[in-house]
């Protein structure tokens, strides 16, 4: 039982990171209809920025600045590379974001080098008992941070003028235009938010073991999360991220005993197995809109 | 005064849809714009409100001016900021948002006076107040039209461009929309009313324009248009023979070529 609860707790921790990344995808998709494959690069950039800033600024301030800078970076990328492509086929723009991802990672890798960069977080791999179950402190921090970020985000979309405008624009762009909403602002802001979320996610992935050149692969797990939750649902992104995290963690805990013939690293691919299963039975996801177009 | 001079609009660089249109909407007036399907009514509204870009359309000649200053070339947001607001054909409310959220988006360019304008809109459309927390997509057609109009009024525009507000509504509701347009106008907003329901439009407007394949073919006080036998024949369905010939062929109309700009 302890083992199971420990698995769930760790899964929720990692799942919160997937949820943050998935939220970025969904926010950009909803407001611009762009499938953004450059999230992994922003995640990596965020973590590496924090690893450089943590020396002079300390962890928390470094995270704040890193998130802000990554958000600005995303905003700039949208303006320069994606905006001119608006109106082109969805598939073409998706490929462009893939190119952005690769190009950015090459640059960021230059700042990583061959070593592992530490983000200097206060948690390391320490655990503390939570209701009798030993849970990694970094996982607790992930869940709490993600919860706060999600709450802020939902409040932003519900109560602020620009947040409402973003939702309106997602429903009907032309109607939003007639209300004086600037679509450019909406596009820029959605990329900035996604960039900021990716930076938070990246920093958390790098807690414990640090950031290396392979870390970006983790961001790909946001894909099963959004397929599971539905491409156009914020709630779905959160739920999908958490579910994928827990599935992966539990498979990691039990698979070696139950189904050793699946090999050593089956947990790593389990999110994609879930994704394929979902695509078979419910291609628009658990929360998504049925007619959402797919690439 | 909102004025359109010699306006030419082309879609996708090739399709000429408006061929030199001139029109005036005086401050505080109600002007009707009539015309069959595809005449170019919506296109004219898009040209005024800056939405052509969104449809791969472009003004290739002429101008749109507000109080003498050109506004063509401004972004939709800037044009809304100048006090011109369009209600799109087919209502186009934000179906996933609540009624009140829809209205708050309407106040986007004028959020400081949102509370005051919200009161005014709820005064005009009491149904919306009752349904304020409901999801807009569940409103009836008539209520959705009211929401679309109320949303536009949330920034207290000087000019309201209404694209076929009576479309698909039962006669009783058309009557109600008509009265609301009168009331909105009484409160100081000029209205450009695009309609296929000519009876309704001409009964509230003081002046009317008739558009046919991108040209103004008639332009007269509403009273005269209502009395005009050709208008009666082609737009009110009250003609003697009701043949499907073009308005251009009508002798009477050819006699007075004052529509040529
Ligand atoms: N985005 C577009 N691209 C190309 N042609 C268009 C576009 N929008 C409209 N048109 C064409 O322009 C002409 C005028 O269309 P418009 O929508 O302005 O007419 P309308 O008078 O509003 O008609 P309706 O009463 O049906 O709404 C039509 O022939 C239409 O096919
Ligand atoms: Mg039309």
Q: Give the helices and strands of chain A as they follow along the chain.
A: HHHHEEHHHHHHH
Q: Could you give a short account of the major beta sheet of chain A? A: 2 strands, antiparallel
Mean pLDDT of chain A: 89
Which band does the percent of strand residues of chain B land in?
A: 25-35%
Distance between the termini of chain B: 19 Å
> Main sheet of chain A: which strands, in order across?
1-2
The general outline of chain A is: globular
Strand content of chain A: under 5%
Largest sheet of chain B, order of strands side by side? 6-7-8-3-9-10
**Structural class determined from secondary elements of chain B:** alpha/beta
Shape label of chain B: globular
Summed over residues and divided by their number, the pLDDT of chain B gives a mean of 89
What is the CA–CA distance across the termini of chain A? 41 Å
How would the blueprint of this fold be written?
The complex is a heterodimer of chains A (295) and B (261).
Chain A (H helix, E strand, L loop, with lengths): L1 H31 L6 H19 L1 H24 L7 H23 L14 E4 L2 E4 H23 L1 H11 L1 H6 L4 H24 L15 H8 L4 H25 L7 H16 L14
Antiparallel strand pairs in A: 1-2
Chain B lengths: L1 E10 L3 E11 L4 E6 L5 H9 L7 E10 L2 E2 L5 H6 L2 E4 L11 H8 L7 H11 L1 H5 L10 H13 L5 E5 L7 H16 L3 E6 L2 H7 L2 E6 L2 E7 H6 L1 H6 L16 H5 L6
Parallel strand pairs in B: 3-8, 3-9, 6-7, 7-8
Antiparallel strand pairs in B: 1-2, 1-4, 4-5, 9-10
Helix pairs in contact in B: 3-6
The structure holds adenosine-5'-triphosphate and magnesium ion (MG).
């Amino acid at each position: 039982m302890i083992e199971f609860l420990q698995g769930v707790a760790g899964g929720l921790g990692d799942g919160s990171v997937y949820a943050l990344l998935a939220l970025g995808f969904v926010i950009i998709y909803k407001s611009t209809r762009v499938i953004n494959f450059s999230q992994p690069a922003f995640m990596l950039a965020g973590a590496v920025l924090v690893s450089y800033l943590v020396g002079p600024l300390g962890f928390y301030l470094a995270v704040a600045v890193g998130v802000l800078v990554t958000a600005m970076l995303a905003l700039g990328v949208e303006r320069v590379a994606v905006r001119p492509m608006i109106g082109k086929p969805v598939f073409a723009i998706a490929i462009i974001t893939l190119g952005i991802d690769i190009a950015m990672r090459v640059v960021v890798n230059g700042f990583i080098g061959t070593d592992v960069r530490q983000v200097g977080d206060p948690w390391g791999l320490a655990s503390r008992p939570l209701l009798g179950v030993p849970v990694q402190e970094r996982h607790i921090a992930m869940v709490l941070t993600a919860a706060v970020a999600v709450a802020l985000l939902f409040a932003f979309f519900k109560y602020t003028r620009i947040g409402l405008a973003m939702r309106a624009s997602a429903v009907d762009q032309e109607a939003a235009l007639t209300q004086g909403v600037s679509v450019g602002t909406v596009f820029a802001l959605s990329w900035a938010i996604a960039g900021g979320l990716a930076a938070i996610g990246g920093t958390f992935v790098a807690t414990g073991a640090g950031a290396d050149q392979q870390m970006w692969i983790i961001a790909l797990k946001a894909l099963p999360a959004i397929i599971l939750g539905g491409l156009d649902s914020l709630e779905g992104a959160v739920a999908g991220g958490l579910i994928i995290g827990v599935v992966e963690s539990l498979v990691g805990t039990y698979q070696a005993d139950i189904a050793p013939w699946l090999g050593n690293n089956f947990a790593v691919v389990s999110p994609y197995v879930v994704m394929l299963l979902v695509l078979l039975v419910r291609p628009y996801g658990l929360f998504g809109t049925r007619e959402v177009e797919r690439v | 005064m909102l004025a359109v001079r010699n306006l030419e609009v082309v879609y996708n660089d090739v399709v000429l849809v408006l061929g030199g249109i001139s029109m005036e909407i005086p401050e505080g007036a109600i002007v009707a714009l009539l015309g069959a399907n595809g005449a170019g009514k919506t296109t004219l509204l898009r040209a005024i409100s800056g939405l052509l870009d969104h449809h791969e359309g472009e003004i290739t000649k002429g101008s749109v001016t507000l109080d003498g200053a050109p506004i063509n070339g401004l972004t939709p947001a800037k044009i809304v900021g100048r006090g011109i607001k369009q209600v799109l054909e087919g209502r186009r409310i934000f179906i996933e948002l609540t009624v009140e959220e829809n209205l708050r988006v309407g106040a986007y360019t004028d959020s400081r006076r949102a509370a005051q304008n919200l009161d005014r809109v709820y005064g005009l459309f009491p149904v919306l107040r009752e349904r304020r927390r409901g999801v807009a997509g569940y409103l009836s057609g008539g209520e959705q039209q009211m929401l679309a109009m109320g949303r536009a009024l949330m920034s207290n525009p000087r000019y309201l461009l209404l694209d076929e507000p009576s479309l698909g509504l039962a006669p009783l509701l058309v009557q109600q929309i008509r009265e609301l347009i009168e009331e909105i106008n009484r409160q100081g907003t000029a209205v450009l009313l695009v309609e296929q329901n000519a009876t309704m439009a001409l009964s509230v407007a003081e002046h009317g324009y008739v558009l046919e394949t991108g040209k103004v073919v008639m332009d007269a006080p509403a009273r005269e248009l209502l009395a005009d036998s050709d208008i009666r024949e082609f737009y009110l369905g009250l003609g003697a023979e009701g043949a499907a010939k073009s308005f251009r062929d009508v002798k009477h109309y050819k006699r007075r070529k004052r529509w040529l700009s």
